[in-house]
Amino acid sequence: MKTCIFHVNGMHCNSCAVLIESELGAVPEVSNVKASLKHFNVEVTGDFGDKEAEHIARDLSVILKPHGYTLSVEKQRHSVKWSDFRIALPAAGAFIALFIILQKLGIVNLITASEVGYGTAFVVGLIASVSTCMAVVGGLVLSMSTNFAKEGDKVRPQVLFHVGRLVSFFLLGGAIGALGSAFQLGATATLVLSLAVALVLLILGVNLLDVFPWAKKLQPTLPSFVGKHIHGLKNLNHTLTPLLIGAVTFFLPCGFTQSMQIYTLTTGSFMAGALIMSAFALGTLPVLALLSFSSLGIHKKAQSGVFFKTAGLVVIFFGLFNLVNVLAAAGIIQPIFNF
After folding, report:
1. 270 touches 49 (CB < 8 A)
2. What is the pLDDT of residue 77?
3. Are the beta carbons of 215 and 315 closer than 8 angstroms?
4. What is the pLDDT of residue 26?
5. Which of 120, 204, 206, 220 is deepest in the core (most CB within 10 A)?
6. In the chain, which residues fall in CATH 3.30.70.100?
7. In whole angstroms, what is the distance from residue 69 CA to residue 8 CA?
8. Which residue has the higher pLDDT, 336 or 283?
9. Domain 2-72 belongs to what topology?
10. Residue 112: its pLDDT value, please?
11. What is the spatial distance between Cα 250 and Cα 164, in angstroms, rounded to a whole number?
């Protein structure tokens, strides 16, 4: 038995750590694996024969590469590709300008006062579906697709997965909204939770920029054992397994999902909570559906850096927009946006 510690390139959040542990843990030679977001590395114990650490890192990287990760013995220096901002800044500016124009004309009202609308939830879902925070969900979809495809069943499991996901987000989103009503959240509690949503969005946006590696450690997440148990469901081949996997994705460690869940608690309404989470789930549907039936992976494309930085700037705008409106609605500051 040999224990090696490898540096992980491409790790962004706790979802990445869960996915890496799940994938490497399934390797026959590996007996134990522990990924660390704090140190951006993974400790692997197994029977690798007389292979050197560099050889082991190359072999294990082959397994992780489809998910956007590689292993190395030496720590890779983090470098920021600032040239991406030359395209990302005007692209994000154009999206934000369009948003402001549509708000001004009253065509859409994505965010009004301190409230997050269904349109906002849908847009956040779109961004989340292609962000690294959805690594676990994407990994689940791809792994499940492969398992069932081996048995010649390609379409039905995918349909059941997405149906289970949409139904669970509706019902559990409604349950969270109703829970907020049961607790009768006061103005202070609602303010604190609304501020939490804005701050989570800001952290997620900064992480998408990939400029400050230390900020990735600030991202909130569920305990890692939750993600591990859920990800392990992909190995079950029962007829209704895809439906179950789709349903439990509600609990996976994704910062975007959790920011919407926090906001849903402030609605104090089953229907409002159900519709907010449903809008978010519908936003994630197009990309996850493509993942179900293809090997789509935007993180593998050359222009992914520009895309993530553009998305990060847009998410930061949403976070700041929501933060300012929450403070204005509470009377702490004067309104800045009058549209």
Report:
1. no
2. 72
3. no
4. 82
5. 204
6. 2-72
7. 7
8. 283
9. Alpha-Beta Plaits (3.30.70)
10. 46
11. 10
User: Is the model's pLDDT at 241 over the cut of 80?
Assistant: no
Residue 33's SS3 state is strand
pLDDT over 80 at 183, yes or no: no
Q: What is the DSSP-derived secondary structure letter of residue 131?
A: S
Q: Which residue has the tokens 């750590």?
A: 17
What is the tens place of the pLDDT at every residue in 15-41?
677 778 888 888 888 888 888 877 888
- Report the candidate in 326, 122, 157, 294 with the shortest Cα–Cα distance to residue 238: 157
Whole-Å CA distances, 158 to 162, 165, 234, 267: 6, 11, 12, 32
C-alpha to C-alpha distance for 54 and 108, rounded to whole angstroms: 54
What DSSP string describes 281-322?
HHHHHHHHHHHHHS---GGGSTTHHHHHHHHHHHHHHHHHHH
Phi and psi angles of residue 300, each rounded to the nearest 5 degrees, phi first: -90, -5
Backbone angles phi, psi at 33, to 5 degrees: -145, 140
d(CA 134, CA 19) in angstroms, rounded, equals: 10
* Nearest-5° Cα angle at 330, 324 to 336: 35
Are 228 and 22 contacting, i.e. CB atoms less than 8 angstroms apart?
yes
